[in-house]
Amino acid sequence: MRIVCISDTHNYLKEIKIPEGDILLHSGDATFYGYGHEVKPFGEWIRSHPHMYKVFVAGNHDRSFEDQPKKAAEWLGDGIIYLQDQAVELEINGDKVKIYGAPWQPWFFDWAFNIRPETGGLKAKWDLIPKDADVLVTHGPPYKLRDVNREGEHCGDRDLRQAIQRVRPKLHVCGHIHEGYGVSRFGDTLIANASICNRKYKPVNKPLVFDFINGKMIEVK
Question: Residues 6 or more apart from 97 whose CB is under 8 A from it?
Answer without folding.
Answer: 1, 3, 23, 89, 90, 134, 135, 212
